[in-house]
Design brief:
45% helix, 97 residues
Length: 97
């Protein structure tokens, strides 16, 4: 499964990068395949692994922020691995034609 999620601290002002970095650090330390862009972090693994990382990423932000917003989108497709790469490669292949 692939989960794209965004953790946003609320009540800490406009500069939230250091709080978001706490969440991304949890993802990177997990060892699971992942990508971070300007809006979301995507992570790939089985349900329990991925949801545990999301839970811990939220908890990391929650330690320093009075309120946390979580946006999550999941692609649940049993048996598929390396979706983070293969999905993008498929689109790129079509664009190259």
């Amino acid at each position: 499964m692939i989960v794209a999620f965004s953790v946003t601290p609320l009540g800490v002002g406009e500069e939230v990068g250091e709080y978001v970095a706490d969440a991304v650090r949890v993802v990177r330390d997990s060892g699971l395949p992942h990508r971070t862009d300007a809006m979301f972090t995507s992570i790939e693994g089985d349900w329990d692994e991925v949801m545990d990382v999301v839970r811990r990423a939220v908890a990391a932000v929650e330690e320093r922020a009075p309120r946390v917003s979580l946006v999550l989108k999941a692609d649940i497709r049993p048996g598929v691995t390396d979706g983070l790469t293969s999905k993008v490669e498929t689109v790129e292949r079509h664009l190259a034609q």
